[in-house]
Design brief:
Layout lengths: L5 H34 L37 E2 L10 E4 L7 E4 L8 E5 L4 E11 L2 E8 L6 E5 L3 E4 L1
Antiparallel strand pairs: 1-5, 2-5, 2-8, 3-4, 5-6, 6-7
Length: 160
């Protein structure tokens, strides 16, 4: 080798060694920082942790209902009514195709004895009686007096 090429080679080698040294220092620095982070315990809380009130589930006695007697249903009561009266002719109205249920006794619990058709005409033979929040009249079929039953006044219209 001649002296003219030697300084270039030395510079090139110095540059390589310098870069290698810097790289080595960087790796060592990263390893030191990483080891400190791994070995460092977690930060402690600034003070004691708040504790809530301890609630315990306990059995509480369930109140038992005392049986009460149900009063018997009140019998139908007779009331004064304006408009319809005994002996009047009435016509079934407002039932549509269903007709009006005529019952054996006043009230919705009474057995259905027949169905009065819409626009059917009847003679009032008894009443009025109040049951189940309705006023009931005893009706007889004008053409067949044996056909009778109690009908609700809500579906009856006086007829001449």
């Amino acid at each position: 080798m001649n002296n003219a090429t030697r300084p270039h080679r030395n510079l090139r080698d110095a540059w390589r060694w310098g870069c290698l040294g810097l790289l080595t220092l960087a790796i060592i620095g990263l390893l030191i920082v990483a080891s400190h982070l791994i070995m460092q315990p977690g930060a402690a809380p600034p003070g004691p942790l708040p504790t809530g009130e301890l609630l315990l589930a306990t059995d509480t006695p369930t109140p038992t209902a005392t049986p009460t007697s149900t009063p018997p249903p009140l019998p139908p009561t007779s009331i004064a009514s304006e408009g319809i009266g005994i002996g009047d002719r009435v016509r079934v109205s407002g039932t549509g195709a269903a007709g009006l249920n005529l019952r054996a006794t006043p009230g919705t619990a009474g057995a259905r004895v027949t169905i009065a058709p819409e626009d059917g005409v009847f003679i009032v033979a008894g009443g009025p009686q109040e049951a189940d929040g309705l006023i009931w009249w005893l009706l007889k079929d004008e053409t067949n007096p044996e056909r009778e039953g109690w009908g609700a006044a809500n579906y009856l219209v006086e007829t001449p």
